[in-house]
Structure formats: structure tokens, C-alpha cells
Write a sequence for this structure.
């Protein structure tokens, strides 16, 4: 005797239809839809074991193929996917062995005179308004460390006024120090245009 199809009850009208075809839903690798934590971790553990077993099977298969080809043939290892080997090549990218572009870039480098010691940097150091005593100790250490650095107190001047003063006095950089709870927590180094 075959199975008899029954009509759904009238009270279920408008609800999800019954799976009459008997189709099985595909099992996904992501057990995130399982609400029970123990069951979810068990399903995920089984998935990891299956994945490990599949990797082992593939590795043994590759070893057998290499053995069948002979000892002298090198085993081809899979290359891991990295940012470098998955990056799409663009025509605008500069290759490290392209000497022509590197020479042009070095000639156009705005900081090249500083590194070749043609220009000596002159720094103006200032702080946020009303700095603490501890910040002045840090400024003293900074001035000993960096040659040609000069401290000018901020007082009530705006940064715009300080930058204008610095460019008039031929300073190349401005350093603004900030602090929080009497500890220096920020240093803004700004290169001034000529």
C-alpha cells in the first residue's frame, strides 16, 4: 500500500508549506544556524575532523603519484595564498628592479636634501595651551636629542599664528606636543613649505 497524501489542516493556511517532495536540504559547513551550543560545537568538530581527513587523503594521493613518477621527480608543493601572489598586476605599479623609475623618483624626492645634508632641518617645538611641568622635562630631553630645535611657548597663540611665525623665521618643521593626565600622548610633526 502506498503512502496517502493528506491535506494540511485549515488552521495552517498561510503558514509555510509542508515539504511534500521529500527533498533533503543541503548540509552547510557553517553550523551557525544551530542554536544549541553543545550540538553546534559537536557538528563543527565533526566538520573539522572530516576536513583534516580529506587533507590527509589528498596528501597521501599526491605522495603516491610522486612515487609512481619516480624518485628523481620533485614533489610539487602547493604555494600558499598570500597578499603578494594574489595581487593583480597593474601597469602603474613600480617593480623593484626598475632602475629608471627609481632614479627619477629619487631626483624628485622632496626630502632628499635633508638626507644628503644639503639642508639642515630647523624645528620649532610648541605645546598645547597650559602644559604641565612634566611636559617641559620631555621638551628638554627632546631639545637635547634633536639639533637645531627651539622651544616657543604656546601662550594664547593659535597654531595658524605659530606656523606663520615659523615660516617667517625660516623653520622647516613645527612639532606640537599634547598631553593627557600629565603624560605626553601626542606629537604632531608638520613639514613647512618653502
Amino acid at each position: 500500500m502506498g503512502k496517502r497524501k493528506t491535506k494540511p489542516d485549515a488552521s495552517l493556511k498561510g503558514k509555510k508549506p509542508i515539504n511534500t517532495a521529500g527533498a533533503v536540504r543541503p548540509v552547510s559547513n557553517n553550523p551557525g544556524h544551530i542554536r544549541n551550543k553543545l550540538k553546534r560545537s559537536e557538528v563543527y568538530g565533526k566538520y573539522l575532523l572530516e576536513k583534516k581527513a580529506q587533507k590527509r587523503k589528498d596528501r597521501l594521493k599526491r605522495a603516491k603519484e610522486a612515487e609512481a613518477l619516480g624518485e628523481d621527480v620533485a614533489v610539487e608543493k602547493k604555494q600558499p595564498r598570500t597578499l603578494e601572489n594574489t595581487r593583480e598586476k597593474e601597469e602603474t605599479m613600480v617593480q623593484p628592479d626598475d632602475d629608471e623609475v627609481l632614479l627619477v623618483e629619487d631626483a624628485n624626492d622632496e626630502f632628499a636634501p635633508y638626507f644628503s645634508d644639503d639642508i639642515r632641518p630647523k624645528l620649532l617645538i610648541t605645546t598645547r595651551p597650559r602644559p604641565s611641568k612634566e611636559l617641559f622635562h620631555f621638551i628638554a630631553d627632546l631639545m637635547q636629542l634633536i639639533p637645531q630645535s627651539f622651544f616657543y611657548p604656546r601662550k594664547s597663540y593659535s597654531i595658524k599664528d605659530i606656523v606663520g611665525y615659523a615660516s617667517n623665521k625660516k623653520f622647516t618643521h613645527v612639532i606640537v606636543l599634547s598631553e593627557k593626565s600629565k603624560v605626553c600622548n601626542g606629537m604632531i610633526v608638520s613639514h613647512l613649505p618653502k
